[in-house]
Write a structure and sequence with these properties.
With 230 residues, the chain is α/β, with parallel strands linked by helices. It is 43% helix and 14% strand. Strands 3-2-1-4-5-6-7-8 form an 8-stranded mixed sheet, with helices on both faces.
């Protein structure tokens, strides 16, 4: 049985990925800041809930202990929790804006990964999926003709560029694991009312990379159509 943890999984793309992976036979833990909401959500899709606030060291360590005790290990970690930040041009961005977004999107991802690395290293086939964004692609954001060049989201986009580099660094350090970043697409969720793609469709690339074979790619950045340029 494959045990999978998805952070930020009570709604949107994270919830849909959890639903699809639970349907594929994974034992899925939904990371939820609100445990009661997490339990209600998990019950609907045949998953389990764990209280998990990625900005809290205490919460993350407690989640690691619980999963170790209940499941005995962890095979797949999906770092999905994230915040969009404000839509503001560079002239308006402040250090506080950056810190707020990085606390979840970057430092939270590292905090969770660090806490669960001992469980992942003990797994026969460990996988980490880091949910990034095409907004973190330097290539696309520097193309004046590209949609990404129109995003006035300094904190969010740069945080996802950091996620991409973190992904590469972990992949280099742990060659026996499959560690990749993904761009799910512009899902129509609470976080992104401008989204045009369903959460079900966006979750497919997360599920694909969460179920990647032991000889599959690692250290890459992917969307449903294929690799995303750095």
């Amino acid at each position: 049985m494959t045990t999978t943890l998805i952070t930020g999984a009570t709604r949107g793309i994270g919830l849909e990925a959890a639903r699809q992976l639970a349907g594929a036979g994974h034992t899925v833990y939904l990371g939820a800041r609100d445990l009661e909401r997490g339990r209600e959500t998990a019950e609907r899709i045949g998953a389990r809930a764990v209280q998990l606030d990625v900005t809290s060291e205490e919460s993350v360590q407690a989640a690691a202990r619980l999963i170790r005790e209940e499941a005995g290990g962890l095979d797949v970690l999906v770092n999905n929790a994230g915040v969009p930040g404000r839509w503001n041009p560079p002239a308006e961005i402040t250090a506080d804006d950056m810190e707020t977004v990085y606390a979840t999107n970057v430092f939270g991802l590292v905090r969770v990964t660090h806490a669960f690395l001992p469980l992942l290293e003990a797994a026969d086939h460990a996988v980490i999926v880091n949910v990034s964004s095409s907004g973190g692609s330097l290539t696309r954001c520097s193309d004046p003709a590209g949609l990404e060049a129109t995003f006035p989201m300094v904190a969010y986009c740069s945080s996802k560029s950091a996620v991409n580099m973190i992904t590469v660094q972990y992949a280099n350090a742990f060659p026996d694991m499959r560690i990749n970043a993904v761009h799910p697409g512009a899902a129509a969720t609470d976080f992104n009312p401008r989204g045009t793609v369903s959460a079900e469709q966006c979750a497919k690339i997360i599920v694909r990379m969460a179920t990647v074979a032991p000889d599959g790619p690692t250290g890459g950045f992917f969307e449903e159509e294929g690799p995303v340029p750095w």
